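2024-03-11 09:14:02 INFO worker-7 job=invfold-0412 stage=load source=structure_tokens
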């Protein structure tokens, strides 16, 4: 399975309440940036079998923009495990149940996405990294094993700047 991990775009000011934070939308510049990133994904030729997103508004809006640009249709699923306080064990279980031939895009939040990437590409206890995924950053992992923590190879990590430059150049 190819798993693509995308951090949501720039959102409005943080709210002091948990309920308010869950409803924070993308800013207009965040929407524009995610639209450019989605166009870059289209230029690269990516096609997703499904898009999975956190239920928080900023992540859901990010997933929706990408789905619209790539004409994915109604393949967006909301997983509560992708919230910032989500349980990784349950998230990993659900990932392991996906079809092996799928190409999946997951949209969520830091630090969960960075921790998830670290867990999946880590080889043994002595090797670790501390991935900080920027807003609009994208990771591609080729999953090789389906265990309590799926393991795979990091294929690439693209910053929002690289993705936006692909969009501007229209590289095919």
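2024-03-11 09:14:09 INFO worker-7 stage=emit residues=172
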């Amino acid at each position: 399975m190819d798993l693509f991990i995308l951090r949501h775009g720039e959102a409005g000011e943080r709210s002091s309440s948990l309920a308010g934070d869950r409803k924070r939308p993308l800013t207009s510049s965040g929407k524009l940036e995610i639209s450019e990133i989605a166009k870059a994904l289209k230029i690269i030729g990516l096609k997703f079998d499904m898009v999975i997103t956190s239920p928080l508004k900023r992540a859901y809006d990010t997933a929706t923009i990408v789905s619209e640009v790539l004409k994915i249709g109604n393949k967006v699923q909301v997983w509560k495990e992708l919230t910032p306080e989500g349980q990784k064990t349950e998230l990993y279980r659900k990932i392991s149940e996906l079809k092996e031939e799928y190409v999946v895009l997951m949209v969520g939040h830091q630090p969960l996405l960075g921790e998830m990437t670290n867990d999946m590409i880590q080889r043994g206890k002595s090797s670790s990294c501390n991935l900080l995924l920027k807003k609009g950053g994208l990771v591609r992992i080729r999953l090789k094993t389906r265990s309590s923590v799926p393991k795979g190879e990091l294929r690439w990590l693209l910053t929002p700047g690289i993705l936006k430059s692909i969009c501007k150049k229209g590289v095919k």
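2024-03-11 09:14:09 INFO worker-7 stage=report msg="The helical segments are 18-22, 28-44, 57-69, 88-96, 112-121, 160-169."
2024-03-11 09:14:10 INFO worker-7 job finished
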